Amino acid sequence: MSVEDFRDARVAELEAKILELGPDKVAAFIAEPIMASGGVVVPPPGYNKMTWEVCRKHDVLYICDEVATGFGRLGHTFASEAVFEMTPDIITVAKGITSGDLPLGAMLISDRLIQQLGGKDADSGLFANGFTYSGHPVACAVAA
């Protein structure tokens, strides 16, 4: 099987699973642009953009885990747009946000989601989030 055939089969598998479950029952697809936890696994060219397009087609949120690829590791602040030509709904980041000096993570939300949460067309704009241990002032100062 060629790399392109493998890529196309995996993208088709994602779309088939969304359709099997029902797009209204799939909240999000979470992906690392380059998988780091199992070794440095680089996806076939076009894979990330194609999975993002499937999610857009079925109104499924695309969450990009840029803990390993963010903050310049692929030559750009975030790899999603510059390297993989997509704009995720949510980007998760950590480590690089403080240059690894202190533990800190963050979630970045797209303009599209912000508009849905609280824009003029939103039904109700409430996004409440909190943790029992969050907003550590020293870690946030290091990130700034």
Structure at a glance:
This protein has 5 helices and 4 strands; from the N terminus they run αβαβαββαα.
Task: Please provide a written account of the structure.
- With 144 residues, the protein is of the alpha/beta class.
- It has one domain: Aspartate Aminotransferase, domain 2, CATH 3.40.640.
- It contains five helices and four strands, in the order αβαβαββαα.
- The chain has helices spanning 3-21, 47-57, 79-82, 111-118, 137-143; strands at 28-31, 61-65, 90-94, 105-109.
- The chain has a four-stranded mixed β-sheet.
- Helix 3 (79-82) links the parallel strand 2 and strand 3 (90-94).
- Helix 1 (3-21) runs parallel beside helix 2 (47-57).
- The chain is globular.
- The termini are far apart.
Tally of separate domains: 1
Quaternary structure type: single chain
User: pLDDT average, as an integer?
Assistant: 86
Architecture (CATH level 2) name: 3-Layer(aba) Sandwich
For this structure, the CATH topology is Aspartate Aminotransferase, domain 2
User: Secondary-structure element order, as H and E?
Assistant: HEHEHEEHH
Total number of beta strands: 4
Query: Could you estimate the helical fraction of the residues in percent?
Result: 25-40%
Spans of at least 5 consecutive residues whose pLDDT stays below 50 are none
Percent in strands? 5-15%
Q: Please, what is the CATH homologous superfamily?
A: Type I PLP-dependent aspartate aminotransferase-like (Major domain)
Largest sheet: 4 strands, mixed
Rg (CA only) = 17 Å
CATH level 1 class label: Alpha Beta
Number of helices: 5
Widest β-sheet, arrangement of strands: 1-2-3-4
The SS-based structural class is alpha/beta
